[in-house]
Automatic annotation (TrEMBL):
It comes from Aquimarina aggregata. This is 5-formyltetrahydrofolate cyclo-ligase. The keyword Protease does not apply. Its EC number is 6.3.3.2. It is an enzyme of class 6 (ligase). Keywords: ATP-binding, Ligase, Magnesium, Metal-binding, Nucleotide-binding. The keyword Ribosomal protein does not apply.
Amino acid sequence: MNKKDLRNKYKALRLELNGEKIEDLSIDVANRMLQLPIWEKSYYHLFLPIEKQKEINTEYLLHILQGKDKNVIVSKSNFKDNTLEHILLTDNTVLKSNAWGIPEPVDGIPIPEEKIEVVFVPLLAFDKNGNRVGYGKGFYDKFLEKCNADTLKIGLSFFESEQEIVDVLPTDISLDICVTPLKTYYFKN
């Protein structure tokens, strides 16, 4: 399936999820995350969910990271050039939703991409090869391109994988792992 069709399919599937189902599935994903051998790292980039898009509630994952005393980095979007600025999340970080409903830090301590060891990647769909479909603006591909080669890229999805995304571009950065409520997928990159 191509990216456009996958976006339409998975946006529609998300619309069918009610608040209780989103919470249950988000907890399942967070619990499955605990089984991964990734917790020895220090710097974790976490996306904050766009509620109107019915994204995975990453609050549960945030609690795990904070409970393990990890450095959590969140992003601020620049829609002029579709890039992200990365900010350390602290007790003093003020979050405010932007015009697209994305919770973002107002300001804070910037963290360079090279320091980030694990990135939790938002997505609409993914395939058995670790390719992902996002909203199509390329924010995460540009971000992941700047990360170290050994930075772990972990997708979070409510839904299981597609067989293949047919229109993958050379600039698309694939995942190392994707976690769903029912399964953890590992990809060779």
